[in-house]
């Protein structure tokens, strides 16, 4: 029982990271109909911005972590301006290829800046543990879950309780109608990319203490986040959250009770089952025509 509690908490914590990365997928896809295949590199970059501010610059945590998130916000706007905006009137497949190329460039750029040697990013919550129903749980795992819940609550409040959120949902529903209604579509799309980058930045900073920071880590995160969106329902915010938790739990429980060799096979096997049996995912997706 104690071991199960530890595994469940760790699985939910890892799943929270995948959920944040998947939300980055969903935010961009909902606003632009484009799958950002550089999303995993966004997470990697968030981790390495943390490496720069925490390890290399040795700033205090109260400054280092907000600075890393601010860097991600700026990067999200730059990515929108330099990658998406010049290609937005091209076929969707062209924009997708553009994100793939940008992701490769980001990965190689990170290799030049930070080198191939992995870093161990310290947790802002220390290495402490607490006892929960007899199980030993790291403070970082619990903090990851709490921070993810707060970010999800903040996203919900933004989308459903503010004029900005309503405008973003209008653009996601129909770009041309939103433009005819006088909404600043370009600014709203830019904010969507900024928001996706911020969520990826949080995912990167939270996963850093769980894994070694490596320039290739984004590929693994992207694949798991993509699987999470398929399982939960592509384009669905609740689906991204549920899918991320499912993938995280499968990965941790599969590694513990079967073999770490097959943990990825289990996650992607379930994704394939969803594609075959329920392609719309757990929560499905509302489909609408875009102008």
From TrEMBL:
<comment type="similarity">
    <text>Belongs to the binding-protein-dependent transport system permease family. LivHM subfamily.</text>
</comment>
<feature type="transmembrane region" description="Helical">
    <location>
        <begin position="63"/>
        <end position="83"/>
    </location>
</feature>
<keyword id="KW-1003">Cell membrane</keyword>
<protein>
    <submittedName>
        <fullName>Branched-chain amino acid ABC transporter permease</fullName>
    </submittedName>
</protein>
<feature type="transmembrane region" description="Helical">
    <location>
        <begin position="187"/>
        <end position="213"/>
    </location>
</feature>
<feature type="transmembrane region" description="Helical">
    <location>
        <begin position="225"/>
        <end position="253"/>
    </location>
</feature>
<keyword id="KW-0472">Membrane</keyword>
<dbReference type="InterPro" id="IPR052157">
    <property type="entry name" value="BCAA_transport_permease"/>
</dbReference>
<feature type="transmembrane region" description="Helical">
    <location>
        <begin position="12"/>
        <end position="31"/>
    </location>
</feature>
<keyword id="KW-0813">Transport</keyword>
<feature type="transmembrane region" description="Helical">
    <location>
        <begin position="95"/>
        <end position="117"/>
    </location>
</feature>
<keyword id="KW-1133">Transmembrane helix</keyword>
<dbReference type="GO" id="GO:0006865">
    <property type="term" value="P:amino acid transport"/>
</dbReference>
<dbReference type="InterPro" id="IPR001851">
    <property type="entry name" value="ABC_transp_permease"/>
</dbReference>
<feature type="transmembrane region" description="Helical">
    <location>
        <begin position="137"/>
        <end position="159"/>
    </location>
</feature>
<feature type="transmembrane region" description="Helical">
    <location>
        <begin position="38"/>
        <end position="57"/>
    </location>
</feature>
<keyword id="KW-0029">Amino-acid transport</keyword>
<feature type="transmembrane region" description="Helical">
    <location>
        <begin position="265"/>
        <end position="283"/>
    </location>
</feature>
<keyword id="KW-0812">Transmembrane</keyword>
<dbReference type="Pfam" id="PF02653">
    <property type="entry name" value="BPD_transp_2"/>
</dbReference>
<dbReference type="GO" id="GO:0022857">
    <property type="term" value="F:transmembrane transporter activity"/>
</dbReference>
<dbReference type="GO" id="GO:0005886">
    <property type="term" value="C:plasma membrane"/>
</dbReference>
